[in-house]
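Dear colleagues,

For the upcoming journal club I promised to circulate an example of a predicted protein-ligand complex. I picked one with flavin-adenine dinucleotide because it came up in last month's discussion. The inputs are reproduced below in full, followed by the predicted structure.
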Amino acid sequence: MPGAPAISSLDRSSTLDRLERERFDCAVIGGGITGVGIAREAALRGLSVALLEAEDFSSGTSSRSSKLIHGGLRYLAMGDVALVRETALERRKIHRLAPHLAEPRWVVVPTRTRAGLLKMRAGITTYEKLGAVEGEDLHRNWSLRELEAEEPILDRSRFAHACVYREYLTEDARLVLANLRCAVARGAAALNHARVDAISQENGRAGGVEAECTLSGRRVRVRARSVLNAAGPWVDRVHQLEDPQAPPRLHLSKGVHVVLPAERLPVRNIVILAAADRRSIFAIRRTGAVFIGTTDTSYEHGCETWPRITREDVEYLLEPVARTFSVDPVAPEEVVAAWSGLRPLIAEPGKKAHEISRRDEIWIGPRRVVSVAGGKLTGYRPMTRTAVEKAAEVCGLRLAAPPAQEEPLPGGDFDGDLARLSARLRLETGLEPATAARMVGLYGAEAGEVTGRGPDPLLPGASVLSGEVDWAIEVEGAATLEDVLYRRTRAALYEPSVREALVEPIAERMAKRLGWGSARREHEISAARERLASELAFLGESP
Ligand code: FAD
């Protein structure tokens, strides 16, 4: 990859100048996995690209997922074989591009009876065939003794059998950033906190977009030969900028996850739990935290970046814990963090949210805007390739052939051995083992460079390093405290014991790097604190 791909927040005004000055092949609206996937594919195929994101890159659904790179065994049961095949095959490809963002993990499926186990194995065997899984990655049974060693808190008096199969755990927000940086390395211009509020016209066709930088108030007009709408749950709203009468196509479904300290629920792998309505949910270990999710309920309140989490959502997720593990029931008051997001599903009238297919759809509007919605994080590459090819066809753009061999994403240039990478980082920097493991998990082969910018913890005892703040600003386009806390360091999700305490030191460092005055600094601090508190607002609801 040519040069170190960087999206710097130190000079947003020059990005705004560039957006206004050039005429691009593609203007992409939305910086979730769909938008950045489009930007990367278009840039790799020789097109010039401008990407505008209303809030932060990945701040929509693409930072609220279950963080699995998976084909979705559940969708096989729904008969979505083509979708499952495509996404199951994608797993290894994403692992090859960014091994730190697709870490192989065992998924434990506990069953009560041998008949249940055999039925499960039959489904998993089909799933593995579709995904061309082989060798060490094939599923296996765990004996009671193995279960005791590998997943000791599972209630073995209820679950005498367990089958395990492979899936991959990602860091969704960081997968988005890695793809976007890849596009930027190929010349794309990208700006977050820049909301598109109009689609401009040239000879009756879309000729670009108009946007406002929400941090400076500056407006820009971006000229482009094609416009792609990748606004996720907001795709209908953006489509209506082009065609005000267009009926909505999406069915929004809310998905909630709750976080517990790992000491409270020391799960080691990814364990499948059966919720009260028999839906499967996951308990997933990530550093010092375990998250449980997800719900899947129709959301009637329109598009929101932070859909409200209710006590009912939380109780639904916690209820199966004591039925599955040998632990005391977990009360909502023990939840230390939570997140929710909206799935932009393609509506299927008469079906409930969890019954709707996760397929994607691409459609062309009257001004030739290409809109893309639906799908899954895992299937972003094939989905966005089709979208770019469609845009090229509709708007007469010349596409280069896809690269024969895709280069690794930023941070992905290593042999996939995270333990070895982590050991090397420790040797070079003297970091504690847990901190080094966290750093390579987030930054892959770039962890050394990030650490080099500031190896001291932001707080005594915390594993978040001061260099991460500088890296976030200089290389990953972080412009607000929330950007760093939630989507760059992910401390809001996985560092529950220190996330509140990190707010001030992050603000301090950002203020120095970005030249914030005291009013801006105070505003950022109170906005971040409000955000953290809002996740747990369900505690105010009566039981
Ligand atoms: P988004 O990530 O929402 O991106 C759209 C972006 O457009 C947003 O950032 C928004 O701010 C921006 N935008 C909106 N309007 C404008 C405008 N006017 N101007 C500029 N920008 C604008 N998939 C998996 O593969 N594995 C999983 O484990 C998984 N788990 C999931 C769990 C939950 C709870 C949910 C909700 C989804 C899950 N998914 C999973 C699905 C996956 O997360 C989504 O399919 C994917 O993230 C959608 O990405 P997107 O880019 O289309 O939308």
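Two points we might discuss: The pocket of flavin-adenine dinucleotide is lined by residues 29-35, 52-55, 59-62, 64-68, 70, 195-196, 230-234, 238, 255, 294, 341-344, 375-378 (CB under 6 Å). The chain has three domains: 9-62+173-249+356-395, 107-170+251-354, 453-540.

See you all on Thursday,
B. R.
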